[in-house]
Amino acid sequence: MELSSYLSVDFWLTYGERYKNYLMAAGIALAIIIAGSFYWYTSYTRKQELAVATLSDIFHDAARAQQNAELWAEVEMAARTGYKQFSATNCAPYFLALQAESLLHMGKRDESLAMMEEVIKGLNSRSPLYYVYAIKQARMMLDTQDEKIQQDGFAKLELIAQAKDNKQADEALYYIGQHYVALGNSAAAKAAFEKVFEITKNQASDYPSPWVKLAQEAVQEFA
């Protein structure tokens, strides 16, 4: 799957079906809605309320930018300004995430990747979105031309796949398999895809893994 597909609304809608208890919308909206609902109900300071309201406004701008690429520069500036204004709040990582998204769409991949590192540092590892962004960061690293960065990105994916209590392990394994496909190592790719099946076989049917279907399609290509 191309990185652009990973960032698409359709992808996140599929993803949200699996985790609909806490993943409720597409793309960056996931972070905004979760952050918003949490901070509206647990925080009563005006600063935090303003941070959530500002995030919501920037998200709407980002949604418009999906249809008009020229607007990404405005989104990036708004996210950068919002981060400076609300860096002391727990919403800060989500401003950085919006900025990273904007930079990526503007073709500034290196800057976006650097920003994603700051997003990861700002998130608590227990956050349900921590591994979502960690996988995105790893895939961006794999998409660079720098061999060392690619290796580091793959190592990150492997660590994510092995992390305890990580609900995104199947996603990490799927992209590990895709990386092996790109390298022409069909045996290793198939092994990774089969691990997706293994770790999801006892999963509740109400929350099916979207990565199982993608892994099945990938395995069929080896037949």
Helices and strands, with pairings:
Elements: H1 3-6, H2 9-18, H3 29-42, H4 46-65, H5 72-86, H6 92-105, H7 109-122, H8 130-142, H9 147-162, H10 169-183, H11 186-200, H12 210-220
Summarize, please.
Helix content is 72%, strand content 0%. It is an all-alpha fold.
Structural write-up:
With 223 residues, this protein is an all-alpha fold. Helix content is 72%, strand content 0%. It has 12 helices and no strands. The protein has helices at 3-6, 9-18, 29-42, 46-65, 72-86, 92-105, 109-122, 130-142, 147-162, 169-183, 186-200, 210-220. The longest helix has 20 residues, at 46-65. The protein is globular and about 55 Å long. The two termini are 19 Å apart.
Question: What brief labels describe this structure?
Answer:
223 residues, mainly alpha, 12 helices, globular
Radius of gyration, whole Å: 18 Å
Distance between the termini: 19 Å
Uncertain segments: 1-17, 19-26
Average per-residue pLDDT, rounded, comes to: 82
Main beta sheet: none
> Order of SSEs, N→C?
HHHHHHHHHHHH
* Shape summary: globular
Tally of separate helices: 12
- How much of the sequence lies in strands comes to under 5%
Number of strands: 0
Estimated helix fraction? over 70%
Question: Which structural class best describes the helix and strand composition?
Answer: mainly alpha
